[in-house]
Amino acid sequence: MRAIVLVAACLLSTSAMAQGIVPPKAPHGAKVFIVSPKNGAVVGQDVRVVFGVKGIKVAPATDTAPGTGHHHLLIDVTELPPADAPIPADANHKHYGKGQTQDTIHLAPGDHTLQLDFADYRHVQFDPPIVSKKITIHVK
What we know:
- By secondary structure, the chain is mainly β.
- Helices cover 12% and strands 39% of the residues.
- It has one helix at 2-18; strands spanning 31-36, 42-43, 46-54, 57-58, 68-69, 72-75, 93-95, 102-106, 110-119, 125-131, 135-139.
- The strands form 3 sheets. Strands 2, 6, 7, 9, 10 and 11 form a 6-stranded mixed beta sheet that branches.
- β9 and β10 (125-131) form a beta hairpin.
């Protein structure tokens, strides 16, 4: 009987690992937003983006305390990253793991979308995701 219980526990554990990482629960009322630029703004190629947060603490990615996390800026991203994996680190997914609350980014001329995605120390989104409204800016 013990062997059956042990095998069942191993199968459940393997099944959970196959599904990916379990996202942390989002604190009630937590939200992030882009303070500037405003939606529809016309800006130069060097764009200062200021991040806002409410109901959750911004902390470096080294801080594993529950209810903390850091910003990720999604640039021209059409869909959120998978919820059961770390947010990618590439030209379209900028990480602010030192707890930064602003950045100046360089963008090519044209229309671009910006959106914040808040994540825990593992760079995993919260459940439900704590994301800002997507804004569109025009770079001249």
